[in-house]
């Protein structure tokens, strides 16, 4: 009977030590197909690292506490049946599944570090590596409202000529991406490296200011933390590409696609794609009554 004495306290600890995971719901409101990619900076890769997303469709990807990484969208892609090909912007090694390969600039990024337990998430939209598509990232908070962050302006339209990426004849043509000054010129003062690798010496440039004016809450250069980093404890992040295009899914809402089963990559991941459900209070009280 001695071992039973510790059952209620064990249950209490279990209830209040649960961890929160969250789901990324990626939606394509662009009037054309995109190919989102994901990359883990900390923890294992997500259940998918690259996939096709047609106009008006959505795709849900579960994550786990402590995951850190980035999500972006590729454009102008062609892939064969084996998933080998190329993209005009955001390419990740010429494969449909990025499998740990980062996006080739320019690419608009959503970046996040998910908190463990009651720790908050840190997230941002970044155009430090350049811009290819408008996007908004809107969290749904566990404990209430959280701030969305975005870069919804079409920077490609006003991109300086020296930063422009022009699409091929086989793709959409025109300006399909806008490079960062670091990518275009490779100078330390633009890349915040060498003697410029600290906030006091790396200041906004003429080019990063163009980006910042277009997207005030997005990272425009490496040390743009003050106006660009957000915190929240969320159970879902809605990541929408081309949010102002007017494109909608079926019945005015995005079409939900099932999460793909990839057992080789999801081993050890939590089964829930949202927060863990609260322990039923009535059952909790019943257990306390039985053992006290």
UniProtKB/TrEMBL annotation:
Matching InterPro entries: Osmotin/thaumatin-like_sf, Thaumatin, Thaumatin_CS
SUPFAM superfamilies reported for this sequence: Osmotin, thaumatin-like protein
Signal sequence, renumbered to the chain: 1-21
Keyword Cell inner membrane: no
Residue spans crossing the bilayer: 269-291
Disulfide bonds: 30-242, 77-87, 92-98, 146-232, 151-215, 159-178, 182-191, 192-202
Keywords recorded for this protein, A-Z: Disulfide bond, Membrane, Signal, Transmembrane, Transmembrane helix
Protein name: Pathogenesis-related thaumatin superfamily protein
Gene source species: Abeliophyllum distichum
């Amino acid at each position: 009977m001695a071992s039973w004495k510790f059952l209620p306290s064990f249950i209490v600890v279990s209830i209040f030590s649960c961890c929160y995971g969250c789901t990324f719901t990626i939606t394509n409101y662009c009037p054309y197909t995109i190919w989102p990619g994901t990359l883990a900076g900390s923890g294992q890769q997500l259940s998918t690292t690259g996939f096709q997303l047609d106009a008006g469709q959505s795709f849900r990807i579960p994550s786990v506490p402590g995951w850190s990484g980035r999500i972006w969208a590729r454009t102008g892609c062609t892939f064969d049946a084996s998933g080998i090909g190329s993209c005009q912007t955001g390419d990740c090694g010429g494969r449909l599944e990025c499998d740990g390969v980062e996006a080739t600039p320019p690419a608009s990024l959503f970046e996040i570090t998910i908190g463990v337990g009651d720790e908050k998430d840190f997230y941002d939209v970044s155009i430090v590596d350049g811009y290819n598509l408008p996007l908004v990232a809107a969290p749904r908070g566990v404990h209430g409202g959280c701030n969305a962050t975005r870069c919804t302006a079409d920077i490609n339209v006003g991109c300086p000529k020296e930063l422009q990426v022009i699409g091929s004849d086989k793709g959409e043509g025109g300006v399909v991406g806008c490079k960062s000054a670091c990518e275009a010129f490779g100078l330390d003062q633009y890349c915040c490296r060498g003697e410029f690798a600290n906030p006091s010496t790396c200041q906004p440039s003429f080019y990063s200011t163009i980006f910042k004016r277009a997207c005030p809450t997005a990272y425009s250069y490496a040390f743009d933390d003050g106006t660009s980093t957000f915190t929240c404890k969320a159970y879902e992040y809605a990541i929408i590409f081309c949010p102002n295009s007017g494109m909608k899914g079926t019945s005015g809402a995005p079409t939900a696609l099932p999460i793909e089963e990839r057992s080789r990559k999801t081993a050890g991941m939590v089964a829930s794609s949202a927060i863990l459900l609260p322990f039923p209070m009535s059952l909790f009280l019943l257990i306390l009554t039985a053992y006290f």
